[in-house]
Amino acid sequence: MKTFTKIAKIYFSPSNTTRKIVDEIANKFEGTQEEYNLLSKSSENISKEFDKNTLVIVGMPIFAGRLPKTSRDKLTNFKGENNPTIAIVNYGNANIGDALLELNELLKENEFNIIGTGATISQHSIITDIATGRPDNKDLDKLYKFIEQCKDKLKSEKFNNITVPGNKPYCEYKKVPLTPTCDESSCIFCYECVSSCPEGAIPDMDPTETSPDLCSACTACIFACPEDARYFTGELFESMKTKFLNNFSKRKESEFYL
Ligand SMILES: Cc1cc2nc3c(=O)[nH]c(=O)nc-3n(C[C@H](O)[C@H](O)[C@H](O)COP(=O)(O)O)c2cc1C
Ligand code: SF4
Ligand code: SF4
User: Fold this and answer.
1) Residue 239's CB: how many other CB atoms inside 10 A?
2) Ligand 1 — pocket residues by CB below 6 A?
3) Does 189 contact ligand 3 (Cβ within 6 A)?
4) Is residue 241 a part of any domain in this protein?
């Protein structure tokens, strides 16, 4: 079996579930872990070429059937050298759209050798009543089986071209037209939300304001706020919630491809 000295984790994870999946995978392999968090401002300038001794694990959430635009752009700056790679898209029990295909194609173009890939399900970061608390134990058991299969594949060193569902051209980028509200009476002006925002949508000097034009509704500021002072509200959010509860409450399962 090919052995690795390093494990590179690359992820974008505003509400932290994609990060959890990536960590679960990485922790089942031996090697020094290095981390590339595409949410951080500093990741804008990362341009990285991995050496052959690195196993790469990539996790991206699905936004409106695609990879989130900002993190997709950042991911194109990572280049492989035929590195064995595990590629995961993580979604909120609604639709995968073309994101799984998009991630696989992007990584292949950048010389990553995908040995296993899949779409996992986690709590919906906007409509948190959907898939609440997932990934749960059932999800993790399925994930661990997949990791074992990836290990077997690495042992056998028999690599194949993996086919995944999705269409080209990919569905068009759609902005989710929601912007978090800040409850000024709860805000303690800690500025966590400002530093968590990947789009620069919250002004440095006034965390109670948010630019709807810049905001991608990613939810990072909501999950970063220690006072629960940020949340989605309003008519559009309520009608989206009703629609999602009607259409996407039935449990879906993760799917993996080797
Ligand atoms: C802007 C936005 C768009 C989303 N679009 C989808 C979608 O198309 N299909 C889906 O099932 N879930 C969708 N979700 C839910 C996320 O994919 C899901 O909650 C994922 O677990 C978030 O990952 P994170 O915890 O790493 O942020 C969307 C979430 C956001 C914030
Ligand atoms: S303001 Fe919008 S883009 Fe910025 S972290 Fe909050 S939800 Fe994401
Ligand atoms: S993270 Fe919450 S409490 Fe801190 S500045 Fe932002 S809104 Fe206020």
Assistant:
1) 10
2) 13-18, 61-65, 90-95, 97, 122-126, 176, 217-219
3) yes
4) no
